């Protein structure tokens, strides 16, 4: 331990880990602890977190509703890139961390705190995401990562510590979930427990959000999603705020079992881990945006976006939201979205979300006459294709001749 810490802002959920961390900070550093709990749509009552913090002697408690900011300023900009990490993961946990870190730094400045703390373990990605954001937003801020300092490794030790200090927690002993879970308006994630065997199929009762596709409604449901400048603005003709729109799509997608993913992924710290995800609304938005882009984006702009997507997704996954390279990519991506205006129609059925229609009244590049196999009334001279093919075949001919020498 180096210089003394006077006051620390703790990202606090009220669960076992952060409740133990709160007391541990008070004991180990002898400092004042400010707790910050973010409502980003996890669907849990946040009152108990405040009550636990008060019971542990915390005087400054922040419980902030960040749902609109989360979706408007983080989820929607990210989704403009159509990002999928390793081809499957829609980055639900990854995109929440920079917002939490941002608000933590704001609270540190507001309260005069000289340190921030988080409950991420030393094996995971979240420690990287939190701390890269802290350092980007407030260089020189003191960061405390208890999991890298203490000897309370393992749930039984945490429970024993909580019992010794009179910290009320709901652990597995009380019938809690065997999984490590994270939830927000974009997704629910599951790790650990039975999932640590990558061959083992997830237990049906693990899934908390989406219907089992086999038991989803027997009739399909259609939904229309409208976009303006790349961002969704309405569902079935009803304009909604960002958070309300995502919540509505979550409801629709979940009812039909859409958005389940089972993935073995590569963590930034070098460990492979298995995670399962439910992202119903995000899955609908990904499908719908690509449909509207298919008629409004120029071919090369669309292909460039697809080439950049894995790089963008990795930046978000690895915690570089506030990096100059992510901002540069965002500027390019946002420029492509200026004319992405239109509506996509999806059919939801038994775990799938299929695009069945797309239109744009103002920005469509689709020309039915050019694309038709019928008489195009001279819009396209098919004889021109002969020269086009000859020019593009030239290098292939030269390569073949070289091989024959």
Give the topology, please.
Blueprint: E1 7-11, H1 16-29, E2 32-39, H2 47-55, E3 61-65, H3 67-79, H4 92-111, E4 115-117, H5 126-137, E5 142-144, H6 155-164, E6 180-183, E7 188-191, E8 221-228, E9 231-235, E10 238-239, H7 242-255, E11 260-266, E12 272-278, H8 280-296, H9 299-318, H10 324-336, E13 342-349, E14 352-359, H11 368-371, H12 384-404
Parallel strand pairs: 1-2, 1-4, 2-3, 4-5
Antiparallel strand pairs: 6-7, 7-12, 8-9, 8-13, 9-10, 11-12, 13-14
Textual characterization of the structure:
With 405 residues, the chain is an alpha/beta fold. A 5-stranded parallel beta sheet has the order 3-2-1-4-5, sandwiched between helices. A 5-stranded antiparallel beta sheet has the order 10-9-8-13-14, covered by helices on one side. A 4-stranded antiparallel beta sheet has the order 6-7-12-11, with no helix packed on it. The chain is elongated and about 85 Å long. A hairpin with a 4-residue loop joins strand 6 (180-183) and strand 7. It is built from 12 helices and 14 strands. It starts with 6 loop residues before the first strand and ends with a helix. Helix content is 41%, strand content 19%. The protein folds into 2 domains: 7-176, Rossmann fold (3-Layer(aba) Sandwich); 185-297 and 339-359, Argininosuccinate synthetase, chain A, domain 2 (Alpha-Beta Complex), CATH 3.90.1260. It has helices at residues 16-29, 47-55, 67-79, 92-111, 126-137, 155-164, 242-255, 280-296, 299-318, 324-336, 368-371, 384-404; strands at residues 7-11, 32-39, 61-65, 115-117, 142-144, 180-183, 188-191, 221-228, 231-235, 238-239, 260-266, 272-278, 342-349, 352-359.
């Amino acid at each position: 331990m180096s210089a003394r810490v006077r006051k620390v802002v703790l990202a606090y959920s009220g669960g076992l880990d952060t409740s133990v961390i709160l007391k541990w900070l008070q004991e180990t550093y002898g400092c004042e602890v400010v707790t910050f709990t973010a409502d980003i749509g996890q669907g849990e009552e946040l009152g108990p977190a405040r009550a636990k913090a008060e019971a542990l002697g915390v005087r400054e408690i922040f419980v902030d509703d960040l749902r609109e900011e989360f979706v408007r300023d983080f989820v929607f900009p990210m989704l403009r890139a159509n990002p999928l990490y390793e081809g499957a993961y829609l980055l639900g946990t990854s995109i929440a961390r920079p917002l939490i870190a941002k608000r933590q730094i704001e609270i540190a400045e507001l309260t005069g705190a000289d340190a921030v703390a988080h409950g991420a373990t030393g094996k995971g990605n979240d420690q990287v995401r939190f701390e890269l954001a802290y350092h980007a937003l407030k260089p020189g801020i003191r960061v405390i990562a208890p999991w890298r300092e203490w000897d309370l490794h393992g749930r039984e030790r945490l429970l024993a510590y909580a019992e010794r200090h009179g910290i009320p927690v709901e652990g597995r002993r009380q019938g809690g979930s065997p999984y490590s879970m994270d939830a927000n308006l974009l997704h629910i994630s599951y790790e650990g427990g039975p999932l640590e065997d990558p061959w083992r199929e997830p237990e049906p009762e693990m899934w908390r959000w989406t219907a089992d596709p086999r038991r989803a409604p027997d009739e399909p449901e259609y939904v229309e999603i409208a976009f303006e400048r790349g961002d969704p603005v309405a569902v079935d003709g009803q304009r909604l705020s960002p958070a309300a729109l995502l919540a509505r799509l979550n409801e629709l997608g979940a009812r039909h079992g859409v958005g389940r993913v089972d993935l073995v992924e590569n963590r930034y710290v070098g460990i492979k881990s298995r995670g399962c995800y439910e992202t119903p609304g995000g899955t609908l938005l990904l499908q719908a945006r690509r449909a509207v882009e298919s008629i409004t984006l120029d071919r090369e702009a669309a292909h460039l976006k697809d080439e950049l997507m894995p790089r963008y997704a990795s930046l978000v996954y690895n915690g570089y939201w506030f990096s100059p390279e992510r901002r540069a990519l965002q500027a390019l991506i946002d420029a492509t979205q200026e004319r992405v205006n239109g509506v996509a129609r999806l059919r939801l059925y038994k775990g799938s979300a299929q695009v069945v229609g797309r239109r744009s009244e103002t920005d469509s590049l689709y020309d039915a006459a050019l694309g038709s196999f019928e008489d195009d009334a001279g819009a396209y001279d098919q004889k021109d294709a002969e020269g086009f093919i000859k020019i593009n075949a030239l290098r292939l001919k030269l390569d073949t001749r070289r091989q024959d020498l």
